[in-house]
Every structure is written in C-alpha cells, then in structure tokens.
Design a protein that fits this description.
The chain is of the alpha+beta class. The protein contains 4 helices and 7 strands. It has a domain at 4-62 and 72-121. The protein has helices at 4-61, 138-147, 153-157, 161-169; strands at 67-72, 81-86, 90-95, 99-103, 107-109, 114-121, 124-127. Strands 1-6-7-5 form a 4-stranded mixed beta sheet, covered by helices on one side. The protein has a 3-stranded antiparallel beta sheet with strand order 2-3-4. β2 (81-86) and β3 (90-95) form a beta hairpin.
Length: 173
Amino acid sequence: MRSKAQISAEFFVFLGLAFLIAIAFELASLDQLNDFRLQKENEAVKDLALKLQQELLIASTVEDGYVRVFEIPNSLDNVNYSLTTLKNNTITVESKNAFYIVPIPRAIGNASKGTNVINKTGGVIYINNKIISFFADSNICQNAQNLGLCSGLDIIYGIGYQASCCSEHSLCC
C-alpha cells in the first residue's frame, strides 16, 4: 500500500503537469490570436486600398463633370494607418504591420482621412482639389494659344483650366 506522502507527491506532480499543459495551450492560442489580428489588419489595409482604386477607376471612365464625395475612415478597426499618393499613379496604404500598393489612373491631388472629393474636369481627375469644374472662356484660351502662354493658364486660373480649354474649345492641347 502507498503512503500518504507518496500519494500527495504524485498528486502535485500531476497537478504541475496539468498546469504545464494548460500554459502550452494558452501560448498556442495567443499565437493564433496574434496571427488572426495581423491577418485582419492586412485585409483592412488591402480593402481600403482597393476601394480607393475603384473610386478613381470609376472617375476615369465617366464623362467630364463627374463629382463624388466619399469618406475615408480615420482608423481601420482601431489601427492607425497612412495614405500616400506616389507620382500621381499609385496609392499606398500602410499600417504598423501591413501595407498595400495599388495602381491608379493619373490624378492630381491626394486622398486623405475624412471627407474626400473626386471630380473630373477636362479629362483630368482631381482629388480634393478646390476647383470642381471650369467653363473656360474661349477668348482667354485663344489668346493663350496665340501668345504661347497655355502653360500659364493653370497658374493664373487654377489647375485644370488648360485641360478645360482643350476639352471645351480644342485650344491649348
């Protein structure tokens, strides 16, 4: 027959073993939870980048005069991120653990967190540009073309005015 001390010792050994197994399961589940969180963050970043790309693709296929107002969230499921437009033809969405780059149609301006306005004027897509549309004066366009000053139209009248001269009057193209 076993002594009470031996039974007590065996109990504590098995209890210690049970705690080690429980800790191992806890560590494994924490690792899986972290992987899930990273995957969720990566998908949120990718989803936002693709949504922005879709907004600009739509703007590129519609007629002049298109205007759309949309919101970009300040955070993605409580994850901070940044938006960057590179050379007016790619958008990068980047968080601490994920980033996604998408090509976009050529556009002037930058998307930002909060309210954004996309418009298309003179065949040019503008993002958050204060000038929504132009009705270019044909005399101004004609004079600029005659004097070789077409490149100065955007400086004097705002970005996109030269493109409006081209699309509305076939001048300064």
